[in-house]
Design a protein that fits this description.
Distance between the termini: 45 Å
Oligomer: single chain
Largest sheet: 9 strands, mixed
Length: 184
């Protein structure tokens, strides 16, 4: 699956000296695997300073931390395989290692890549242009220099449907407990 960018994005990015410089933003949702513990989010930008985006969003702007990362090309595969992206995040300060450990390796967690114009960061929501690619962490590894993540589209053949089997008058969870789902 290829990323289909709006015509205004592709026409500008393909110019030798683009008028509107673009910026990549990465959002990782870290599900820590414990029942009743809410996931946390890590938001990184490939710029050199902290930024807030989107401006004017009813939910409020999000702060993105500057952190160097690079990723492989996103290209369409003619063999029918799901798109995968190799993402390399700087690990020289070891500041992201806590998330790798707390997220139980990050595998299966949500990841979102945003492509945004730098001069569009101050345009009020929802009038700004951006491109969004929703992915999942397929695998993760770390060295002293980088954290390497393989991101891809969810494989729907791996999901059980329905995820659980229910039998009338039987429940495996404690009534009112965190797994029960019934609000007391």
């Amino acid at each position: 699956m290829a990323i289909i960018l709006p015509a205004s994005f592709t026409a500008n990015i393909e110019k030798a000296h683009a008028v509107n410089d673009h910026l990549w933003l990465l959002e990782l949702e870290l599900d820590r695997g414990a029942v009743g513990v809410a996931p946390i989010g890590v938001r990184l930008c490939d710029g050199h300073q902290q930024l807030t985006w989107p401006v004017g969003d009813p939910a409020g702007p999000i702060t993105w931390e500057p952190f160097p990362f690079v990723f492989s090309e996103v290209e369409q595969n003619q063999e029918g395989d799901l798109t995968q992206i190799e993402l390399q995040i700087d690990n020289s300060t070891r500041s992201l290692m806590q998330y790798l450990h707390n997220g139980e390796g990050l595998e299966g967690n949500k990841a979102t890549l945003f492509l945004v114009y730098r001069n569009g960061l101050s345009i009020a929501h929802p009038n700004h242009e951006y491109q969004q690619l929703r992915l999942r962490v397929i695998s993760a590894s770390a060295t002293s220099e980088t954290i390497a993540l393989r991101l891809g589209l969810p494989n729907f053949f791996q999901f059980a449907s329905p995820p659980d089997r229910y039998v009338p008058s039987k429940c495996r969870w404690e009534f009112g407990g965190p797994q029960c789902g019934y609000l007391v």
